[in-house]
Amino acid sequence: MFLEFDEVTLRFSGLVALKGVSLTVNEGGIFAIIGPNGAGKSTMLNCLSRIYTPQQGAIRFLGENLLRVAPDRIKACGIGRSFQNMELFSKMTVEDNLLVGYHCALPSNPFSEAVGWYKARSREREARERVQRVLESLGIASYSRQTAGNLPYGIQKKVDVGRALMGDPRLLLLDEPAAGLNELETEELGHWISDIKRAMKTTVVMIEHDMNLVMSISDRIAVLDFGELIAVGTPVEIRQDERVIRAYLGQEA
Length: 253
Hints:
Elements: E1 3-12, E2 15-25, E3 30-34, H1 41-48, E4 56-61, E5 64-65, E6 79-82, H2 94-100, H3 110-115, H4 117-138, H5 153-165, E7 171-175, H6 183-199, E8 203-207, H7 211-217, E9 220-225, E10 228-233, H8 235-240, H9 242-249
Helix pairs in contact: 2-5, 4-5
């Protein structure tokens, strides 16, 4: 099993944010999580990336229960994540922002740096080569030496995703990647998310409100409503599901 949520329940005092959520994600596809505001979508990603710890259930990735993994080891497990509210280092270059995302692959300490300087330099060279490959795959290699904070919003979004890709993740989490993008930028976004899946052999799990984007690139979709999983299926199945229609449009619909 690639990724599995098993009866995951998370409470904040009297609020049940997730209620017994169980689902599986197969390797190699694009899996979208949708639902009205407050449905628990970001909460699921926060549990998966170990920002939150559920009171009940398990989250298994490649057979390992992630709830037993320290938050700072999630990236080393093969999981990368971008965030809706980007936290780029605005005064650093695009290249340096991506190098930050590669830190877990560059273990070092003062002693090893002093004794094994050649190996350390070799690792740094490999990291910079990785940066260029990622930037080229996203079509933003020309921005490598530019200051991140001076770039257009759409390019900054790509930098954020590029940073998440630096560890060569098997699973990429995208939290509302189309937020703040115009229609043309969103269409382009769909193309390069699909390209990431194919070229980098990365499974994508994304939260998104733009239904045109979700329906056009997703292989499977899960729908949450008030912390409960109400539907899982293909885009065609989800579009026709009465529970989903009610969740988005109201009981009368």
